[in-house]
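FORM 7B: Structural annotation worksheet

SECTION A. Query
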Amino acid sequence: MSTATNIWENRRVLVTGATGLVGSWLVKDLLSLEARVVALVRDPDPLSEFYSSGDYRRCNIVSGRLEDFWSLERAINENEIDTVFHLAAQPIVSVAHRFPLQTFEANIRGTYNLLEACRIHHDLVKRIVIASSDKAYGEQPVLPYTEDMPLQGKHPYEVSKSCTDLIAQAYSHTYELPVAIARCGNIYGGGDLNWSRIVPDTIRSLLRGQRPVIRSDGTFLRDYIYVRDVTEAYLRLAETIDNPAVRGEAFNFSPERAVSVLELVAVISRIMNRSDLTPDIQNTARGEIHSQYLSSSRAHQVLCWQPRYTLEAGLTETITWYSRYLGTIEDTAISRKDSHA
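SECTION B. Predicted structure
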């Protein structure tokens, strides 16, 4: 967590995507720092960490969609927002591949709607952090990704993130909006209810005594970053945005340890003592880049940011969260069944 706690006290902060994986943990951090959090929520999800933890009770919730400009303008203007963390997006590669329109609308239109609302109210908004992704780089001939590489997504999800990133840069360079961009690898942690992702689905399968499913051939390389390291990175960006080396710039955040999907599943299985359940390798993944991982040298040098969690430590905390969460959900289901018996 950030050490500069004084700058967040009573600061009015808008978080888009507050019910998502990163958003829910960022809200926790901001509340602990005594910020006044405004959360843009499209669909209330009672199973999300944002709601199930009760954090929503301490936030001002604005119901709206990224695609609706006036919802964003109202959230910023009526709440006199000082800081914006733009995390909301359609985040699943396979969903984008099946039906790209929804992804383009949310990720591209949603970004320029938000930044245009910030431009109109530039007298209010003093710092904006935009969540981009390693996917914005597309496929590159040399790895790891560095911030000076071109953004050249080719498939729908990658393109949506390339556009998000470029639009944010345009608003910074043209209108001098106080923007900083975060590009992270694969983010994992408790609260991710997108079961098509490898970490939550593997943990859930092993908890149920089932073989974990791998949609690719298992050799795809990724860097996996724990959500608490990501929220620390976002806070650091916002806190240092007046630095000319930060304002208008993009930063990679990664533990700089690339592992294959098979290696990741093996680590989870070892921590959970379920190495007896061998993976079911389906090799059906489409529209995904084989190898992606990032260099975080710029973040180390400019932001003095370092990840605090190893892969094993982050996964251990994540497994604990899902063990508790899924146990609670299943106990509730049993209780409801018994009450109707």
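SECTION C. Observations
Residues 5-189+223-257+291-309 form a domain with the Rossmann fold fold (CATH 3.40.50.720). Confidence is low (pLDDT under 50) at residues 331-341.

SECTION D. Sign-off
Analyst initials: ____
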